[in-house]
Amino acid sequence: MKWLLLIACIGCQSGETGAPAVGRTAIGATTNEYAGDIERLCNAMTLSGADKLPQGERMMPLAQWVAGALVTPEGKAFMLKTNQMPKGAHADALDAEAKRVGLADCPLSAYWR
Length: 113
Hints:
This protein is mainly α. It is 64% helix and 0% strand.
């Protein structure tokens, strides 16, 4: 349920009516903007301030922050795609994408586990 909220927030922010297809940036060459999206996503818990809230109150502020923080269509598509994955698989996908764009770690994927 909480991931549906995140999907809805990102979908509303993107202006898309459905999940956009992941473009060449998400699976091929990485732009600085896309890499920034993945970095912001990985650090979203801290950047949004949700880490300072009680466990049960984190999802809404986190989802709202992420929806406004992702700037590329590929970043939004990646988030939508991972949120449709089974539990645990979305954390693995985020870890893999973080490594692909050059990040050493991804705190959000650890939180998702």
